[in-house]
Amino acid sequence: MSQRFPSIPLDDPSSLGSTFEDEHRKLHGDNPGFKYKDQNGAPIGPFAVLSYTPDLFQPFMGMGDAIINQKSFEPRARELVVLAVTAVIDCPFVLYAHMRIAVKLGLSEEQVALACKGKVPTGLTEEEAIIYATALELARSRGPLDEQCWQRAERALGREKSARLAHVVGYYLYCSTLLNLGAISAPED
């Protein structure tokens, strides 16, 4: 997957060991719908890079668990946010994993394709469309969110949901940074 950060087998003394499976399950359940280990069972994707900083693995996964599994932010909304990030950041592994998760959560392949191209998918609720558009603008932004976009988000979502959306954007920008450092591609199916 990556020449820069070759996968470290879980049974290697320097690896993440059994902690990896437990933490991954918290984030994505027993059947995430995407590959996260290589043919030898070693972590791939962002987990390959994290294997080189095991002291940061659990804090990263804890943050991911808190952000991904927010009770007040629906999984489908979360995936729309992640797809907005993939429309801005070239990160094949995030795109690979989250296209599958989005379809699993009820978005059509056409909606996913539009979202990945930076277009608000058709057939969304008004709130979902605002979530996607706000996340897209935030991911594109290199400064404060445009005032008009903020006003629309605050009116439709409120401050709490807008803040929750920003946490998801930030987390996947972080994941994408790790993956792009490692030049990690999507696995072959």
Write the layout of secondary structure elements.
Elements: H1 18-28, H2 46-50, H3 54-68, H4 75-88, H5 92-104, H6 109-116, H7 126-140, H8 147-181
Question: Mind explaining what this structure looks like?
Answer:
The chain is an all-alpha fold and 189 residues long. It has 8 helices and no strands. The protein has helices at residues 18-28, 46-50, 54-68, 75-88, 92-104, 109-116, 126-140, 147-181. Helix 4 (75-88) runs antiparallel to helix 5 and helix 5 runs antiparallel to helix 6 (109-116). The protein is globular and about 50 Å long. The protein starts with 17 loop residues before the first helix and ends in an 8-residue tail after the last helix.
Could you report the average pLDDT, rounded to the nearest whole number?
93
Q: What's the number of helices? A: 8
End-to-end Cα distance, whole Å, is 13 Å
The percent range for helix content is: 55-70%
Overall shape = globular
Main sheet overview? none
Strand count: 0
Alpha carbon gyration radius: 17 Å
- Beta-strand portion reads under 5%
- What's the helix-strand series? HHHHHHHH
Helix-strand makeup class: mainly alpha
**Low-pLDDT segments:** none
